[in-house]
Amino acid sequence: MSIMARVALLTLAALLSACASRTPPAPVAQKPVVFITHPEETSPVAADVLFRALGLVGTPYRWGGNTPDSGFDCSGLIKYVYNDAAGISLPRTTREMIVMRAQSIGQDKLQTGDLLFFATNGGSQVSHAGIYVGEGRFVHAPATGGTVKLDSLNKAYWQRAYLNAKRVLPTEQHLARLP
């Protein structure tokens, strides 16, 4: 048998054995966390925050950054979006944001524009934050080398790290009561 025939036979055998292998087991499905969005309670200001935050997806991460030109870290992104879209001046750091006087919100009551806080270093010390945009998703500036991105609260990582949420934007009902 010629060398070419042997190579062809070995290649054919390898291909057939690869096709005969078992398929990998299906991954174990995690039960997703259900997030309820209340669109009827979303204010026009919350919509402005949503669109401004989503418009910054892809902006480079930079520790200490707080503008689209320089890049963002997580708290710089939040401070910029709320000031630019809603005229609200927020503290500069996640540690200052989590202790500010604002209504704490349960995960089942999240609305567009709520601030999300995480302990990504373990424990209960806040180290990261993002802006909730609805349907279990949030915008954040995650890490060096990355960019501002849209992420899911259903991911096990974010569920483990989740600490708290705060509402700094007025709801439609609150706006209706203002003079």
UniProtKB/TrEMBL annotation:
SUPFAM superfamilies: Cysteine proteinases (SSF54001)
EC number: 3.4.-.-
Keyword flag Protease: yes
GO biological process: proteolysis
PROSITE patterns assigned: NLPC_P60, PROKAR_LIPOPROTEIN
Keywords: Hydrolase, Protease, Signal, Thiol protease
Signal peptide: 1-20
Enzyme class: hydrolase
GO molecular-function term, one example from the UniProt record: cysteine-type peptidase activity
All residue ranges annotated as the NlpC/P60 domain in the record: 43-169
Keyword flag Transferase: no
UniProt family annotation: Belongs to the peptidase C40 family.
Protein name per its UniProtKB record: NLP/P60
